[in-house]
Design goal:
Layout (H helix, E strand, L loop, with lengths): L4 E3 L10 H14 L3 H5 L14 H14 L4 H8 L3 H9 L6 H10 L4 H5 L11 H11 L8 E5 L8 E6 L7 H21 L5 H15 L14 H12 L9
Antiparallel strand pairs: 1-3, 2-3
Helix pairs in contact: 3-5, 4-5, 6-10
Length: 248
């Protein structure tokens, strides 16, 4: 029996589709990184994905800031920029770098996708169905394998559920990365509960995690459709590998 590293997963972001990742990487090419880093990037940009202009992005930032009742000066201090820079962001005079978009999303209670114009929701999850739909999508992520463990009465005194990921599964390339992230997240959450972290330190840690993980592409695969006869054969291989029937 394989040994699993067990974690209860808290949802922290929606999975980005490949086309969104292409757009994000192109922004980073244009605004954030030197030519040496650009040469190592793997995606080409599809310009049809740029759904919001600089002015539209600025208008979204402005609306979100006002909803939080933040002044431009206060927001500038939060993200470590000058007042004039924030004014230029909101007017669309200058482009907003990906790192700043991530910062703004954290401070303005929204998502980078919304700021960049990919959807009309300020939060990726608005109902329990949104969270459930996200979990269903995990089944379609290539190179990520997981199982589900449930303990409940009368077989246990507890009622707990967990998504379990084997960090040693070499056939699932994303498993080890995800386990490393969850280990680090567990430590951060423990520090938060013990009041060792201040909110700024926790936000900085999340920004660093998101920046690092943007370099890791996520591919989706469709579930395999099987006819009834093939399904029965595969079921028998799992539950009766010896092929011995009751009559034998």
């Amino acid at each position: 029996m394989r040994t699993y590293n067990t974690y209860i997963i808290r949802i922290f972001s929606a999975l980005s589709r490949e086309k969104i990742k292409k757009y994000v990487l192109e922004i980073r090419k244009n605004m954030c990184y030197d030519i040496g880093e650009v040469r190592n990037m793997k995606f080409d940009f599809d310009y049809s994905m740029a759904t919001a202009s600089d002015a539209e992005i600025g208008a979204r930032i402005c609306a979100l800031r006002k909803k939080k009742h933040y002044s431009q000066s206060y927001l500038a201090n939060l993200i470590g920029k000058s007042l004039r820079t924030v004014q230029k962001y909101e007017s669309g005079e200058i482009k907003v770098s990906v790192d700043v978009v991530n910062q703004l999303a954290l401070y303005l209670d929204t998502t980078p996708q919304f700021i960049l114009g990919y959807n009309n929701l300020t939060r990726p999850f608005n109902t329990l169905a949104d969270i459930t739909r996200f979990l269903f999508e995990l089944e379609q992520v290539a190179n990520l394998e997981f199982s589900i463990r449930v303990e409940r009465p009368p077989y246990s005194n507890n009622w707990t559920c967990a998504i379990m990921i084997d960090g040693k599964d070499r056939e699932a390339e994303l498993n080890a990365n995800f386990c490393l992230f969850l280990e680090s997240w567990q430590q951060q959450r423990q520090r938060n509960k013990a009041f060792h972290n201040d909110p700024a330190a926790y936000r900085k840690w999340k920004e660093e995690v998101l920046a690092n993980q943007q370099e890791v592409p996520v591919l989706f695969i469709d579930g395999e459709e099987l006819d009834e006869s093939v399904r029965r054969i595969k079921n028998s291989e799992i539950y009766n590998p010896s092929g011995i029937t009751d009559n034998e």
